Amino acid sequence: AVTCPEPLSDALNASAGNGSEAQNATVRFTATPEGTALAYGSLLFMALLPIFFGALRSVRCSKSKVTRGCELFSGEMPETITSRDAARFPIIASCTLFGLYLFFKLFSQEYINLLLSLYFFVLESLLCRILSARLDPDVERLRHHLTNSNNVVFAEILNYEFDTKSLICLVLSSVVGVWYLLKKHWIANNLFGLAFALNGVELLHLNNVSTGCILLGGLFVYDVFWVFGTNVMVTVAKSFEAPIKLVFPQDLLEKGLGASNFAMLGLGDIVIPGIFIALLLRFDVSLKKNTRTYFYSSFVAYIFGLVLTIFIMHTFKHAQPALLYLVPACVGFPVLVALLKGEVTEMFSQSKEGLGIVI
């Protein structure tokens, strides 16, 4: 439903289709207060990272047709979500979710997860690109040193058209990919999940605030229905072994890195509010007032909504649809700010061109 690069589209459809409950409440052990606090705090921190940095990079991606900064970071151009896309997305996500549920009921879970693992291993190129951007200065210094050395053969290899930084990062991300394929370790899972979420927030651009409200409103209903109305969401989330959720063990203090009782947060609960928060940052920039009022208010609202989700989940010991709490917070706080500042009309009438988005 979303017009975006193919691997990212599949990843986001999967995340929206099965990762929208905030944490896995059906565990077989009693977590210590310290372990619980560490797990929930870590999930909150990991969720904020791709939203904050993805929103900042989305501004750079939207400033010109060249989008040089965006290409250096991800190799892809930003894609714009229209109101039609936003309206269709919950329907497509529901079909994807129910299709996965049927697959797990009809076929062997082991073989399905093996195919999914291989598929996500291919998507490690996203992680490679992110590492390329992060390591760019250091790798360039290494390249400069080696190409100016007396090793003529090695210097010639480095002068080929491919990027040395991409090659080095490909090796690093391949190590993570093999680690994930062989061990399914939660740290490798989170590295992939953070990479996908960061790319999603950066590259998926809502064309205006109204479209954002349509998307969040539709997924609000979708999330509530599939979590509270059926067991489909929880069943798929427990069965789905792919990096479409962030996890953190509640028994880390007892078992170390071999811990196995996880709290979880779906990538859909990061990316969907994240692209709306990124939109509000671009709106702040378009106002040319040298303030980030709407961005910070929505960012604080996201923290409030996620903390509320965790609190209610922990209190009632039941998986929660995070968008039930995130959507009213992320939409309501900025609209309230706009009402106080008298900018509601300007917020909802702002065009994609006014937000600095070039298609």
List the keywords.
single chain; 359 residues; mainly alpha; two-stranded parallel sheet; two-stranded antiparallel sheet; 16 helices; 4 strands; disordered N terminus
Walkthrough of the structure:
The structure is a single chain. By secondary structure, this protein is mainly alpha-helical. The protein has a domain at about 5-105 and about 205-350. It has helices at about 5-20, 35-60, 70-75, 85-105, 110-120, 125-145, 150-160, 165-185, 185-205, 210-230, 230-240, 250-255, 270-285, 295-315, 325-340, 345-350, and strands at about 80, 205, 245-250, 260-265. It has a two-stranded parallel sheet. A two-stranded antiparallel ribbon has the order 3-4. Helix 2 runs antiparallel to helix 14. One of its GO terms (cellular component) is lumenal side of endoplasmic reticulum membrane.
Low-confidence parts, pLDDT < 50 over ≥5 residues?
1-27, 65-69, 152-161
Q: What would you report as the Rg, rounded to the nearest angstrom?
A: 21 Å
Strand content: under 5%
Q: Strand sequence of the main sheet, in spatial order?
A: 1-2
SSE pattern, N- to C-terminal: HHHEHHHHHHEHHEHEHHHH
Mean pLDDT: 76
Largest sheet: 2 strands, parallel
The level of helicity is over 70%
User: Outline, from the CA principal axes?
Assistant: globular
Number of separate strands: 4
Structural class: mainly alpha
Family: Belongs to the peptidase A22B family.
Protein name: Histocompatibility (minor) 13
Membrane topology: Multi-pass membrane protein
Subcellular location: Endoplasmic reticulum membrane; Membrane
